[in-house]
UniProtKB/TrEMBL annotation:
Xref: Gene3D superfamilies: 3.30.70.100, Rhodanese-like domain
Name this protein carries in UniProt: tRNA uridine(34) hydroxylase
Catalytic activity of the protein: uridine(34) in tRNA + AH2 + O2 = 5-hydroxyuridine(34) in tRNA + A + H2O
Source species of the chain: Allorhizobium borbori
SMART domains: RHOD
E.C. number: 1.14.-.-
Amino acid sequence: MTESTTLPRPETHGSFLVAALYHFATVPDHAALREPLQALCEENGVKGTLLLAREGINGTIAGPDAGIRKVLAFLRSKPEFAALEHKESRASKMPFLRMKVRLKKEIVTMGVEDIDPNKIVGTYLNPREWNELITDPDTILIDTRNDYETAIGIFKGAVDPDIKTFREFPDWVRNNPGLHNKPKIAMYCTGGIRCEKATAFMKQEGFDEVYHLKGGILKYLEEMPEEESLWEGACFVFDERVSITHGLKEGEHTLCHACRYPLTEEDRRSPLYEEGVTCPHCHGKHAAADLDRYRQRQKQIELARQRGTRHIGS
């Protein structure tokens, strides 16, 4: 990357450091990590969600720089997580309400037994190698994310499986024999973790040339100059920023608190939009009792705003 196209470092924007991380490893005593990790995060002003399982760790946390560094150092002090990598971005305000460390069966739920990315996985590509691959006519490009994520952004030419959850992905692959029509399969997701399992699954299903974007969309948007980018739209993120764009800048999307769908400015101008209650994507789908409950919640949120505080339901 030349000096003229170098993007501003993401840590120069926003008061809070956001760290997205995952690592596959065998962690038989993962439950013992929950309480000390929860306590360390709380002591250092760090909020977010971390998932612990026998297969590793996954999550996103945010907080002051020093607090995030302490949490990452603690994790990397464990032999299983010594090689842990993370991706950084910034947030103008704290994007999480609380800190949750949860014990799970899987750190990303696919529902397929015996998928181990430590044993078999696709070939990693950096952003520039990725651009070359996905413009190759012998490549099928697949987005492994959920439908509400692909709705606001996608790589040019990508196949959208239109799935509600990652659990649906294996059946979608098995029901699409046309995926064998080209020799190369390229796959991507937000931060890379879903593709760890997705590419392992594809290899297990008999696909030979399977590739994935290392670091996911987040790394691509951080490193790839916008004028050379093949990404179209914004990237959905699982925190109160809702979306980010090139250079890891905060996007303009908000969430519908009724259906959790990301909303554009056009959506918010729709006569079907009522803040905190309904939007063009869910209008007419809620019972009267639910609408009344949403309006009461929104009233409490507005009162909290007037007091200069944050309502837990916001």
